[in-house]
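Supplementary Methods S3. Complex input for the adenosine-5'-triphosphate-bound model.
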Amino acid sequence: MTDSTDLHPGGVLAPDVAPSTPREIEAWRALDTVIDPEIRQPVTTLGMVAAVEFSGDDITVTIRLTIDGCPMRDTIQADVGAALQNVTEGKVSVRLSTMTPQQRVALQENLTAARPKNPFGADSLTKVYAVASGKGGVGKSTITANLAVGLAARGLAVGLIDADIHGFSIPGLLGVTDKPTKVEDLIMPPIAFGVKVMSIGMFLDTDQPVAWRGPMLHRALEQFITDVYWGDLDVLLIDLPPGTGDIAISTAQLLPTAELLVITTPEHTAAQVAARAGQLSTQTSQPVAGVIENMGPLQLPDGTFLEVFGSGGGQAVSDRLTAVLDQHVPLLGSIPLDPVLRADSEVGTPSVLSSPEAAAGQALQSIVAQLATTPRGLSGRKLPVSPK
Ligand SMILES: Nc1ncnc2c1ncn2[C@@H]1O[C@H](COP(=O)(O)OP(=O)(O)OP(=O)(O)O)[C@@H](O)[C@H]1O
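Predicted complex, serialized as structure tokens:
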């Protein structure tokens, strides 16, 4: 008899029927390639495979989902079926069951065992960008959502926290309707376009107004950081509320390696307000990674440009912050006013993917390229984080 204990976890997460024959072991190895979409680890190591049973050439696999009604059930079922196609000529059936409470506790313990309470603390290798603006309506959330999706499309593991608690719009921008699932006390963020997304909006009725004070906002952000299973992220983006409020200070405390991205429109008054938001970084010791101008000149069908919101604001903020902070703060790009970006946002399909040839899509791609860092999983090298 072959010892198969290295193929699967033990204890309560051990399979009901352990693989023993060469065929079963081969099937088990094929299942190693099936990655749970939420946890991003092989279903075999998570204890999600309860049994692999042959009847002649037909094979039946029993998968334990973490919770009943898991939103990823169809994906997991399809991936398991696909992984076993080459293992047998016979029929492949995938049966779904649900973990027991004891199994869920064991899984949560396994997932959190080696994890620091704050996975984005001072020693973290994750690049953290907090996206700030001086005032509302400048397109901060739209840009944050697009940057996250663009970075994920380049193979980076990306998380996105919507900390714009009063005006949360990230779920809509990414078409997320799923609620986060829970494995005991651990929250599994929904995934959209490869990005793990958390928003307070996922816990509220859509029409409910939110009147939260500073300490509650701090606690909400803290929970998003400590109670959510983010896994190993290359990049974490935070969509901050507009202005220089409490949550910006909380971000600096809870995410000590965070760098700011400052969004402004081209007009002079907006640039002044944006520069003030950027200067807050002197109080919180956060470097400013760059400035992004949004709603720049709109190209008309005759090829001329219409400066709806004026011009030069992005460069002005970059110059001002470079002068005031003791560092070069680059203008990372100017995204033009583009009806395509607005229309894509409305239906939850980010332009960076769905309209890369449009004017805004191209500008966003260029900014993504500047922010992209080497995927940690592939390189095994440390990321250039710069803790203050
Ligand atoms: N470059 C652009 N071209 C056309 N429309 C844009 C552009 N950028 C943003 N918009 C539109 O402007 C509106 C405001 O954008 P968004 O909600 O992202 O702003 P915001 O700065 O996050 O606002 P708040 O912080 O108040 O939530 C949205 O309807 C969005 O689709």
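Residues 7 and 44 are 7 Å apart (CA to CA). The chain is about 35% helix and 20% strand.
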